[in-house]
Amino acid sequence: MKTRTSSFISGLVVVVFLVGGTLTAQGQWEGGAGESGAEGQLPLSKVVLFTSGVGYFQREGTVTGSADLDMYFKTKDINDLLKSLVVQDLDGGQVTEVTYSSRDPLTRTLKSFAIDLTGHPSVAQILAQVRGEVVELLTSQRIIGTVVGVETRPSGEHTADTYLNLMTDGGIRSIDLAEVRSLSFLNPQLQGELDQALSLLAESRSAEKKRVTVGFSGEGNRRVRVGYILEAPLWKTSYRLVLGEEEHFLQGWAIVENTTDEDWRNVSLSLVSGRPISFIMDLYRPLYVPRPKVELELYSSIGPQRYDEDLGLAGAVPEAPMAKQRMAESRAMPSAEPMYEEEDFDLSQGVATAAQALEAGNFFRYLIQHPVTIPRQESAMLPIVNQNVEGRRVSIYNRNVQAKHPLHGLKLKNTTGFDLRGGPLTVFEQGSYAGDAQIDTLSAGAERLISFAIDLDTEVAVSSRSVPETLLSVRIVKGTMISTLSMRAESTYRIKNSDNRSRSVLVEHPLNPDWDLTSPAKAEETTRSSYRFLVEVAPGKTEELLVAQERQIDRSVLLTNINDNQITFFLSARNVDRRVRQALEGLAERKTALSQTVNQRKGEERRINTIHREQSRIRENMAHLEKDSDLYKRYVSLLDEQEDQLEEALERIEDLRIKEQRQREELDRYILSLDIP
Question: Which CATH architecture has domain 458-558?
């Protein structure tokens, strides 16, 4: 049983979904896709294809009086349709309701009916569900009564019979169900529930099709319009280019595919060059919020109540009355009037977000000027460009593409006045095939290179070298010496033209953002990844192109870690500032003095080590001698002398350590004091 929601605004734009079908003058939705165009049906009138994987489909027709439109559509399209479809009743009618089959599991839906048909119930099981309902039975006689219950009685050792107990005018009767030839419910609401459940079971056998019903309400004949977005193949383009001298002839074709189950007959077709944002959101699946289960609290009695003290929140304004007031104001607002023109379908009227989206977009539309017919599951090529364009012939050289020869190309300028969508391009010259090319989407007035063949009459040889680093400047900042060096890389392109016609060779050289171009001073063009240099080569001549790039880098070294060789290098360099040179000279003097002190200390330490080794040898020998022998006495004298030498050496080492520490501190203070920009 269907209901109407009469509070819907007249001419309401409703977001719902739709797939092919037909609308008769009586308001019945009949048939399926592929029948549009027949008398009394709602035909497909407009198709707009985008390059983001969707298409807009629009239908227009008439309806008489109030009507419910039953439509069937593919399950995979429901989410796109739920968020995009618009419905309009254009001549004073209104859209009253939109209903559609739930995506809940079939068993869940069947359990919602008064008669549960899940699990293939028998007649006895169905009758057991409707106790208290009035039924009409046909056995050998016609019997009307109220269902009391169903029971089984043994009829044999392993068999039983099922009986229906009815309350009739003559009392309770027990009827063997095996004798019942027909059964019907006299409650029309119960019978309707059973019919709906059976209809749902029939629909469920087609897993790919779902039903939606749109209700229209009004009087007389009225125009209705339906539009929606569905997934659609990308429309594609291909071009043919006939080369001339300064002007060239460009022919473009759009490739359109009708992958639907419906013929497109005499539809208005538009092709949009652009990529509107499109996505799929699951709006069809019912969502249930998990809720906590709270047990009912039972009290045997209510005793005296004790209340906590007020903590100063008594002055807070309760929110509920305000909410009720806002709701009342909302309900009191008058309903909006229909806002559409008689012939124009403008969804941006009164919708701010649509206007913003149009301002943000940068689309170009190809409107096919004549009605288009494309049968279902077929494709078509439609002409969209047929005019002269400008273009300069060049040979394009990129050593990463072809190391020896450049490619025949064209600097194509889009002088058509509208955007050209990217696609393959077949080139013809002097009545024959010249090669294939590919272009990206080209805006009106923009230029783009295309290449279509190898230029065998032109040869290019490339040699590269790196120039040794050059010191540009040196500065000292708080004890750190920073030297700025220049690095230079050169590539020489030697271009030979063996043809009897001149060549305009466009050389592509890799662009590195960390390097600056120094030669030539400026490139003909600069792209995201390369420089382009134009070289004119006369017939039979050879030209050279030098491309030089430089880069400056800074290298840092702590003056405490700098060695003598580095100091010598910077002192001999020409680009070192006089103040830096003086600072390095002072550093060298202090480092030399410190080094001398360190060497002296180490010399004394080596001397002590030598004396210790000699003493060890002497004592070892003395252990094997008689104490009154001359050699033993000589060893004793040597040990006395060495002890004196050790004392003197230790005193000198201590003095040298103190001197070394003082010189290090002085060197550190000197280094930290240096700040020469």
Answer: Sandwich (2.60)
111: its two tokens: 């359990």
Across 65-170, where does the E strand assignment appear?
Answer: 67-74, 86-89, 94-100, 134-138, 142-154, 160-168
Cα–Cα distance, 434 to 429 (Å, whole number): 6
pLDDT tens-digit series, residues 52-102: 889 999 988 888 888 877 777 777 887 887 888 888 888 888 888 877 766
Paired with 458 in beta bridges are 497
Q: Which residues pair with 386 in a beta bridge?
A: 251
User: Can you give the residue ranges of every domain in the chain?
Assistant: 1-116+190-232+264-286+344-372, 134-186, 458-558, 564-676
Torsion of CA 161, 165, 166, 170, to 10 degrees: 100
In the numeric block, which tokens belong to residue 434? 């010249």
Q: Which two tokens stand for residue 254?
A: 């759009």
520 preceded by a cis bond (ω within 30 of 0): yes
Q: pLDDT of 310-334, one tens digit each?
A: 334 344 434 433 333 333 333 333 3
Q: Which two tokens stand for residue 479?
A: 């004890």
Decide: 302 and 313 in contact? Cβ < 8 Å.
no
* CA-based nearest residue to 271, from 357, 383, 416, 376: 383
Alpha-carbon torsion, ordered 116, 117, 120, 123, to 10 deg: 80
